[in-house]
């Protein structure tokens, strides 16, 4: 194992997309940010210097951070933000994980431009459990806003309404030929050059702020081999569904017949949203190209490539069918250590809600029925602490004024979650966490609610991978649904979508001491409070305890103002 050192200089840089030139936060002047490549077992040290006029933190999405919670990165959860002019070194090991993960800013909506891939190669000499690809390509799907994303969310919070949607989806930051407006034709298109008969490993990441995405390549079938840096039983799919936060490694074989069939020898890669969202969404399709042989440099032919067939934007059945395909490898070499018994069971409702307008809000309230949008779990809308990080409070055992260790295990009232909502839809607010003793086996059933319309929510758990042991539509039924759990080869992930008007059950063992946020990876929902945190206590042995914070951890600062309310 080696130590890999990287420096992240966070600076503003000029970027042009969709004919709009603007200054955006970047890492080392690059958008998207640099690709980090490590091997399983390596130590990673990323020295961050904040040179922009905003607070920032970085999160290594999916990295387990075993006893290195100080490096996890969500602002106010495991650290106070790195203030302008400050530095902080994220120092952690990659233990027992391999595949594709990614990193992104975890403060406000800065991850709109501050993100990049984190590729974890197997230990030297260890093969993949699938045919060795000819080449590996990381492909990050993103979302581009012509406006400043910080201004977009700030305005939404002031009016109480939904934020403006993005202007395009992107492939490694490129929106595709439809939007090409430069004279250097084709510059805005991601192109994957392939040779017939060869197989390519696409390391896909959905880095979009607010949209789950369909992904397909015209005339090509994809083979899924990995999800969230865990191997799965390989399966073929014409269309993928990737939720924000999720990663998916897929094999694409360039076929000779495909090349012969197309005169241009190019095929469209298309990305479009999957949503049942309340209100508007970015309903654009982004296009990239798979190119055989000598490529066409002009954008014009790319514009006329036939698009692969994609499901309708709200095709929840197609999404459910795709999700059902995922099984962990569960082989002798890669066993699935699924917890068979459970120490503590939780039932969390997940969904949108509303708040009364407050007097200090400017103008009228543009949320539902003159209220302000909010989101919650078990009707608690998560309030970010302002004076210390939760991990700091936990480490110093000083909860008062920072957090309350009483997040409810079940919702305050039971109702028909996927039917007509109850009358009073107002949420409560608080920084409430669930304390867990070390090594507790946890089951959480996440139930979507239709209070403001049913919608799928990509839930991400920090600090752990979990097993997805069950899922279904309608209201979760403890007796019948539990009996149908898959405890043999359930997929292991760090982000799972709670299906629209449905539920999903996950299990994990709380063997990593620290404070771990679990939240919806749609940034607008996170901003509205769709989050909670687990506080996992130390175990009795020295190697089961959270070490002290590094000396350069950003200092506590009183009265930090994050959002204007
Ligand atoms: Cu990728 Cu808390 O996030």
TrEMBL record:
The cofactor remark states:
Binds 4 Cu cations per monomer.
Q: Which GO terms of the molecular function aspect are on file? A: copper ion binding; hydroquinone:oxygen oxidoreductase activity; oxidoreductase activity
Supply the EC number(s).
1.10.3.2
Q: Where in the cell is it found?
A: Secreted, Extracellular space, Apoplast
Instruction: Show where the Plastocyanin-like domain sits.
Output: 10-123, 136-293, 407-538
What residue ranges are annotated as transmembrane?
A: none
GO cellular component, alphabetical, reads: apoplast
What this protein catalyses is: 4 hydroquinone + O2 = 4 benzosemiquinone + 2 H2O
Named cofactor requirement(s):
Cu cation
The UniProt keyword set, sorted, is:
Apoplast, Copper, Lignin degradation, Metal-binding, Oxidoreductase, Repeat, Secreted, Signal
Its GO biological process annotations read: lignin catabolic process
Please describe what this protein does.
Lignin degradation and detoxification of lignin-derived products.
Family, as annotated: Belongs to the multicopper oxidase family.
Query: What protein name applies here?
Result: Laccase
| Source organism of the structure | Zea mays (Maize)
